[in-house]
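Before the break, one more example. Copy the sequence into your notebook; we will annotate it together after we see the structure.
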Amino acid sequence: MTERKTVTIASLKATVNGMLADSVPSATDGRVALAVLIERILMDAGAYHGFRYLSGVMDMTTDPPNMIGDETRRSYY
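Here is what the structure looks like once it is written out:
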C-alpha cells in the first residue's frame, strides 16, 4: 500500500505566487492557468482571501532590465 502524501495549502500558494511573479513575460497562458488552479483550490478549501495585482516585475531578460506588469501577475493572500 502506498503512503498518502499531502502538501499544505500555504506552501502551494507560496509556490504559485512565486511562479506568477517570476515567470518569463511570454508565459501569460501559464500564469492564467496557475491563477485559475490556485483560486479553485483556495475556494474549495474555504481559504480564499483575494489577491492583488503586482504593479511591476523586473524583467531581467532585456538589456537594460525592464519593469513589466499585467493582469496575470498576481499574489494571492
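The beta strands are 51-53, 57-59, 66-68, 74-76. The chain is about 40% helix and 15% strand. Try to locate both features in your own notes.
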